Amino acid sequence: MSDLVPGATDQSHTDGSGETVADPPQVEEVNNGNDHDSALGIVDDALTSESVHSSVYNYHMENGRRYHALSKGKYVLPNDEEEKQRLDIQNHQFSITFDGRSCFSPGADGARRVLDVGTGTGVWAIDFADEHPHATVIGVDLSPIQPEYVPVNCRFEVDDIENEWTWTEPFDFIFSRMMAGSFANWDNFMNEALFHSKPGGWLEVIDSSVPCRSDDGSLTEDHALHQWMSLMLKASENLGRSIAASNHHKQRFINAGLKNVTQRAYKWPTNPWPKDSKNKELGFWTLANIENGLEGISMALLTRGLGWTKEQLLPFLAVVRKDMRDPHIHAYWTILVTYGQKP
């Protein structure tokens, strides 16, 4: 286990064909300050404590959920305690899905500089730094919600990754997970990632494929679960940040000029309906992840993107939860892992 040190959260305002593995079976501002769940931050002397609070810690409350302050309104998921718990559950679900692997890019183990885009609670970056003490791992996110104590080779930065990247030293490995719906222009992200990668460096993106589906027809258009996914997709497209981005990731990698492009596919059952033990366990964790987080996942997207009210949304989500629990609906989400190498 690496030594732990206070995490450095930097407020860095910027200026500005391969193998495919087939498919397997009224706003209120809230000043939270430096609470124990937020990274404390090492701030340049030119920035006062008040400026840090106003720029990254002045979270916004909307329909009872807390959201990021930097680049307000860009990201539709909350950053409150409930969402942080969901993200950690999701990280555990990924660990089960990948049999303990944190990533698939062949060059990741030897990487010296690693960037985790959309680090969230920072759990992936912390685990990777712990497992690779030779690497310097940087996690970047709109919200400073990472732990106070982290491995000595890990740090966090608060920034909007859609702005021009200002890192001066290139990376050996750039990683991003569950960021569909976060970017207005994925091609811009690809261009920045490639520009800031070393020759021979690797880029890996992991996302769910939309919509969920069933192989036996047990999920139909009449189900609230299907309708929810359709509404979420429409809302995200109305906001200019489609949640179906992963369906095009492999072609994006190829178009960007990466080599050794590979895509792997995995299933997340909606509940423990599968007969085999591993997929049954994954279904249990999908319920813990998605069902329990359904309000946070849906609230901003459907209220901002479709004009729903909270009062309209909550009864609908109750029916969606009922479908998610139904063992007769054999639905699943496909998780796509796409990675490639800079020439």
Describe the structure.
GO terms for molecular function: methyltransferase activity. Belongs to the methyltransferase superfamily. LaeA methyltransferase family. Residues 1-40 are annotated as: Disordered. With 343 residues, this protein is of the alpha/beta class. The protein has a domain at 4-210 and 242-266 and 334-341: Vaccinia Virus protein VP39 (Rossmann fold), CATH 3.40.50. Helices cover 32% and strands 24% of the residues. It is built from 9 helices and 13 strands. The chain has an 8-stranded mixed sheet with strand order 2-9-7-6-10-11-13-12. The protein is globular and about 50 Å long. Mean pLDDT is 88; it is low at 1-50.
Quick summary:
The chain has 343 residues and is of the alpha/beta class. It is 32% helix and 24% strand. It has helices at 49-57, 81-97, 123-131, 186-195, 224-238, 249-255, 277-291, 294-306, 310-325, and strands spanning 4-6, 9-11, 28-31, 58-62, 65-67, 113-117, 136-141, 149-151, 154-158, 171-177, 197-214, 259-269, 331-341.
